[in-house]
Design goal:
Layout: E1 5-12, E2 18-28, E3 35-45, E4 56-61, E5 71-77
Parallel strand pairs: 3-5
Antiparallel strand pairs: 1-2, 1-4, 2-3, 4-5
Length: about 80
């Protein structure tokens, strides 16, 4: 089964080898049909502490690294 790959903005890089990525998606409201934004934060593994807050990154699903981290950084975008 292919691993999910998401793109989002880094909102925190305070943890050691950990970043928090905000993923925003647009969905239609189930009743009214209006397009609304939904967001979720994911903790991702950044081995080299190279990514800083404000960067745009791509993250990929992986085996659990810790209680919250089940994603790893693929690359910095742009």
């Amino acid at each position: 089964m292919p691993k999910r790959v998401l793109q989002g903005t880094v909102v925190s890089d305070k943890g050691d080898k950990t970043i928090v990525v905000l993923i925003e998606r647009k969905v239609a409201h189930p009743v009214y049909g209006k397009i609304i934004r939904r967001s979720k934060k994911y903790h991702a593994h950044d081995e080299g502490n190279a990514i800083k807050a404000g960067d745009t990154v791509r993250i990929e699903e992986c085996a659990p690294i810790s209680k919250l981290k089940t994603w790893k950084v693929l690359e910095k975008v742009g």
